[in-house]
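User
Please review the sequence:
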Amino acid sequence: MDDLTWDYEGYHPAQERLRESLCTLGNGYFATRGAAPECAADSVHYPGTYAAGCYNRLTSQVAGQQVENEDMVNLPNWLPLRVRTATGTWLTPDSHRVLDHRLRLDLVAGTLERTTRYEDEEGRRLAVRQLRLVHMADPHLALLRTELTAEGWSGTVEIESALDGTVTNSGVERYRALASRHLTDVRAGTGKPDTVWLRCRTATSEIGIGLAARTVTDAPARTTDTHTPGRAAQLLVLALTDGRTVTVDKTVALHTSRDAAIKDPLNAAVDRVGTAAGFETLLDTHRTAWQQLWRNADMDVRNSVGPILRLHLFHVLQTLSPHTAELDVGVPARGLHGEAYRGHVFWDELFVLPYLNLHFPEVSRALLTYRHRRLEQACRAARDAGRTGAMYPWQSGSDGREETQELHLNPRSGRWLPDHSRLQHHVGSAIAYNVWQYCEASGDTEFLHTKGIEMLVQIARFWAGSAEHDSALGRYRIRGVVGPDEYHDAYPDAVRPGLDDNAYTNVTAAWTLARTLDVLGELPELLRRDLVERTGLDPAELDHWHDVSSGLHVPFHDGVISQFEGYGELAELDWDGYRKRYGDIRRLDRILEAEDDSVNRYQASKQADVLMLGYLFSPAELGALFRRLGHEVDDLQWRRTVDHYLSRTSHGSTLSSLVHGWVLGRARRAEAWTYIHEALRGDIADVQGGTTGEGIHLGAMAGTLDLVQRGLTGLETRGGALRLDPVPPPELSEYGFAIRYRGHRGVQLRLSAGRLNVSVPASDEPPIDITLADRTVTVAPGESCTLTLPERRP
């Protein structure tokens, strides 16, 4: 790897799924995994293509029950292009001798180059070089250039170029017993002599899908249509001469009925591919679009961390590009890179939007608008549950209903178990937090005072209505929830699921209520009146919100913040014993369940829960929150809390090391890098043991970018100023990046040798206030300043 490319050498079947995920190409509208075009889906390869927001619902029989699941659909495979020599067998890396094999992912240009040298059964050698792209300027186009060179022989070859609509959703092993055929009414045909097309629709959501592929060569070829059921294909026969390269260009267009300004997706695809420019022109416009993205988003990190951050940024931009701003989609937790989590939207935007806010705020606004469009459904879900306000689902898909599975499979025991993760109602606070963060960074008061405040009000209303006053305790309590930890979903041996007074849930609920009251107090009179009329707000309700926001119960035990009420009474786990027996205990919950035990009995966490508070809020802001709730949590108590949970966490999520690295950067700097390094390696080293092959972890990737951007700089966009409190570790003590802030584009920040340099490009915008712990300076457009940072203890 280097700053510009990501390279793989040699063909290793065991690594193919991982490579395919990390070599995915996309443009925010759709993405295609980095599978070899000659390989179909099997135990080694999985060529998947996914369009943002394209979901379908199927019913399966699971453990004697009928269960509905909505999946992001694996669309028809546009990649197939295979070659055979006179032996008559198609060349694949699994059936023929591979002399050389290389993959090069060009992060700057957004292309995947693949070179393979084959030897057929009769000793003929054929070099295959391919360059692939999913067009970043035109989101409906993809291209595959194939160069064939005969080595030491001349003769005829046959090339099949196809569009395959027989695909299923089978990329995740534990889902394979479930219904997976989402495409129906597949039809194939021929347009112009060099063009084939495929039309289909999703089975229940009835999304129409149209693809067209134009295949041309720079050598004379005899072309025959070879369509089969569910598959549009052409067979090209051409002659190869020893040492001379023949080029085959395949240009593909994809449209769905969700697209704007089209009548029929098939006609749109055929028209688009028919008028598309040649390969060189399309390659040039694609590279230009990527150059513009890098100009707005790149980081200058000049050590071994730099290439990893660039890879992470590359995949974030492929999933959530400026094209996303035109779509009704959320943040898929596994990107557009695979089928894990069924392509659902969780709370991962909490880790993604803070980065986008300062580079592509229009994308953040669109992702928040996805949530606003589903506000009515969230309010209906709350009413159905006997609650008030908006109860957003833990997992979302096409609409606003709850998509969390009712059962989940433990691969260790083979048992299907109840899934109570839908009780993670803290997703509502995450949405509220993202609304506030976006508006603070962008200055978009129009969104805050319209869609934003509507969401804030209904989320605040949900928390106020969920809080029950305990007269004996003299506090408000929120019962029956699951926290970010996810391991604990009930008390030991309890009949009902859920826990009481999860500290993270209660503190973020208090923050949501307080922040909503602040925004309501600042609303212009006409907007406030309209909002009150639409939502039925009255002064008594707002008084209740104030009481709840300062009266929610936060449990403590042994001088530390309790994860939830009763946590301190749980048993201690023999961590050393379990590590000795099992080695990798990241999924401790599965291990214990397979032993007929339950993680609910132990002080053991999958990932950060209480410590997530240190991720969301600066020390000053967190201290103020606790004081509002009647507690004085000083640095010593917070450090004890960090120590307590750090030694009781299995890190069964890629987000865990990210959050712990962020928190330790301020609580125990000397240990932070261990977790930061783990977060950086999460997907490239597949530390979760095979999960990256099912799709990258988008929240963790974006989170590492934000760790460098905000975490280590202490950057906050709060109170109309850029607030900074840098804590760079020695391993990352010098780096720079540019941000967009309230109309200013390209504000440069650079940390080096105890100094912080800030440069503001010339513009007509007002000056920016830069606040450090001990001083505030104002930097006007066209000016820069260098600030000496106070020394910090390790």
